[in-house]
Amino acid sequence: AQSVTQLGSHVSVSEGALVLLRCNYSSSVPPYLFWYVQYPNQGLQLLLKYTSAATLVKGINGFEAEFKKSETSFHLTKPSAHMSDAAEYFCAVSEASRDDKIIFGKGTRLHILP
Amino acid sequence: EADIYQTPRYLVIGTGKKITLECSQTMGHDKMYWYQQDPGMELHLIHYSYGVNSTEKGDLSSESTVSRIRTEHFPLTLESARPSHTSQYLCASSESRTILMGYWGANVLTFGAGSRLTVL
């Protein structure tokens, strides 16, 4: 069975500082991994996805994530936080199989301090 | 520019009322989904559809019902709303997956902006 754990329901960083949002997954078959972002009063928007090609995945707005199979992790990073990055971030996992099911984490709310 | 539209965005109603949350997409996607979102919780799948006249219940039990009479339209209905139904409801869609070198492609969801329902 698949599962996703996001460490930290709230993360605060100063503007210009490194952003690191943690995600660990479990999956019995090769996984697909996603990060979605949700801005206030909006739906979720795909930030980036890992589909078994390059382990370092680049997404929109300067975000990237690295798939580490040995650590079962898919942490999201951005070198320099911007005020506009304040949002909720969801990690999700699905399988490279016929099963369409997508499992979402509980989300991490990112606060940017001026 | 949204390709999947939800109305109403906000709804406050009294207990016992019937409500319908509308969801339409212009991308021609076969698959559509309804998720329930509560603060600090995972998104829970409550309904999904793989095409016209196809509807299935998701992982989270819900008293709501859905219909899929047209590809682009996937409304959710509550016959008698209760305070326990207060939540945010997110509609999503995705295109059919293809298989390549033995692996199915990733299922990427496009979400609407959500309908926030408050039942008094």
Question: Would you kindly provide a written description of the structure presented here, covering whatever features stand out?
Answer:
- The complex is a heterodimer of chains A (114) and B (120).
- Chain A is an all-beta fold and 114 residues long.
- In chain A, 0% of the residues lie in helices and 56% in strands.
- Chain A is globular, with a radius of gyration of 14 Å.
- In chain A, 39% of the residues are buried.
- The mean pLDDT of chain A is 92.
- Chain B is mainly beta.
- Helix content of chain B is 0%, strand content 48%.
- Chain B has no helices and 13 strands.
- Chain B has strands at residues 4-7, 10-13, 19-25, 31-37, 44-51, 54-57, 65-66, 76-78, 87-94, 99-100, 103-104, 110-111, 115-119.
- In chain B, the strands form 3 sheets. In chain B, strands 2, 4, 5, 6, 9, 12 and 13 form a 7-stranded mixed β-sheet that branches. Chain B has a 4-stranded antiparallel β-sheet with strand order 1-3-8-7, with no helix packed on it. In chain B, strands 10-11 form a two-stranded antiparallel ribbon.
- The termini of chain B are far apart.
- The model of chain B has no long low-confidence stretch (mean pLDDT 91).
- The A-B interface holds A 4, 9, 30, 32, 34, 36, 41-46, 49, 51-52, 90, 94, 96-98, 100-107 and B 4, 6, 9, 31, 40-43, 45, 90, 92, 94, 97, 103-114.
